[in-house]
Amino acid sequence: MSGTSCKDSIALLLEYLDGNLSDEVRARLATHLGDCTPCEEFLRSYRATPGLCKKALVARVPKSVADKLTSFLKEELKKPV
Ligand SMILES: [Zn+2]
Known about the structure:
By secondary structure, the chain is mainly alpha-helical. It has helices at about 5-15, 25-35, 35-45, 50-60, 65-80. It has one domain (about 5-75). Helix content is about 70%, strand content about 0%. The protein starts with 5 loop residues before the first helix and ends with a helix. The structure holds zinc ion (ZN).
């Protein structure tokens, strides 16, 4: 197993929101997000552009969590990895 799938990333994000993510796992997540076109698109235009990860995400989390998640992800994308 190498890399992190979109589905895994969403699971990790949910753990992050719960405060359960180690720095190492968080870094892995950031790597996937910077490397994955569907996730990147999802992050950049969450509301305007439906994508694979958005579909997976909204199926799993309530809107309030999705909004919080989107804010977090936008901050992550601004950082150099
Ligand atoms: Zn992805």
